Amino acid sequence: MKSVAICSSLSLAVSALASKCAAQCQGAEVITRDVAIIGGGATGTYAAINLKDAGKSIVVVEKKGELGGHTATYHDPATGTPVNYGLQVYYDHPLSRAFFSRLNISVSQGTFPTSGHTPKYIDFTDGVELSNYSVPGVNDDYLAELHKYPYLENGLELPDPVPEDLLLPWSEYMTKFNITDDAFATYSRPAVAGDLTKTLALFVFNNLNTVMLEEEIDGKTIVNANGDYAEPFRNALAELGADVLLNSTVASGQRGAKPSDGVRLCVSTPSGSKQIVAKQLVFAAPPVLDNLAPFGLDAREENIVSKFAGGFYYTGVVTNPGLPQNHSYVNRGQTTESNVASLPGNIMFNPTAVEGTWYYWYTALSAMTQDQVEAATRDTLKRLQQSVAGADAAAEPQFVAYNSHTPLHPTADADAIRAGVYRDMYNLQGYRNTWYTGSLMITGSPQLWNITSQLLPKIIAASEQ
């Protein structure tokens, strides 16, 4: 089948997008599947394996060279030791254990990255350590506030109207409800992009929910027993085989209004353009306008997804940083509100099991390139070498791994939330044969797998119409 025939059969064949589809996919290989999945992170991989187990044919389009999304693992070339510099633990839940078992993964109890290393809290802008600083745990005041909003625990199915208190910046919410003693604890979460003092209370509760608290306070976590967090996704890739298109992106596409219209995509791959003809589409990447633009959005879809924007977050591995190995180093401002880190900047440096090998996390307020992130990280390390006791000021950092997590955890602003953007997003499920899953509604992988597992029967039913 020729792609020009596929494109011209669509109701919008006269559009510029259809013309682009015809031009790019002329004569390309056609891949016909029940379901096309965009994004091979935790949710995309989970959807692919479970749809395959349900007897459905699938294809996954993943822009990176491996599956795993926010999981990032570097293997020390000398010892083979895995260094996990993205996701650190999974919530210990039957769904997590079942998925790992399905992928032939043995698990053990997990620990957070700073375990075993005494943290030093330092203002990374000048290298000065904060004296008498500590991070208290979350107390009953925070829990009482969290429990006022049970609908934030596993998603964002919000009431109408949304309580105005939830749309306050977190710093104002804490003051209003006198929970400022929790400021250090709630601001100490490293994997949150942007200025935490401006984060809406809604997103603080959604992110630091009961599941996350059980992970952090009660240690209810699991990890790969062998310490290689990329292994589940390598196993999944081995099983899915040619049904995964790595280093690939959708160049253009069309989605019909009826199930019988299906989905047609032109995909750029390392081996050239390919056409995908599928009955249903699962979008497991961040649903922001830049990511969805090639899919031929209509006015309704564009109006909704244009309201979301993700954070700018980057992680990497560096060797020879010149810092004493017996500490982790955490960025805290001396004069900022609640001592939050100044941005853009590194959040922390953490030593690993490999002597002289560290990983770092970095957040910004706008997009940065790998070169920019690594140059800024080097400058910070050289600053710390001058101020940290026992550091080697002559050490020259070497950057050996890098991963962009941008756009991280997309959110909407208060006005869009008041207007019902999350309700509208939920109502898009199944519209134009497209289903959305991923970290828009919740951040923890097991909770995302739970949301995805509830969508799968609907996706399967739609693919059979």
Task: State the gist of this model.
The protein contains 16 helices and 20 strands. It has helices at 3-8, 16-24, 42-53, 94-102, 140-146, 170-176, 183-187, 201-207, 210-218, 231-240, 289-292, 299-305, 370-387, 414-418, 421-427, 445-463; strands at residues 29-38, 58-61, 73-75, 82-84, 90-91, 107-109, 118-123, 128-129, 221-224, 244-245, 249-255, 263-269, 272-283, 309-319, 327-331, 345-351, 357-364, 398-404, 408-411, 434-436.
What is the CATH architecture assignment of the largest domain? Alpha-Beta Complex
The largest β sheet comes out as: 8 strands, mixed
Looking at the structure, the CATH topology of the largest domain is Polyamine Oxidase, Chain A, domain 2
Principal-axes shape call:
globular
- The total domain count is 2
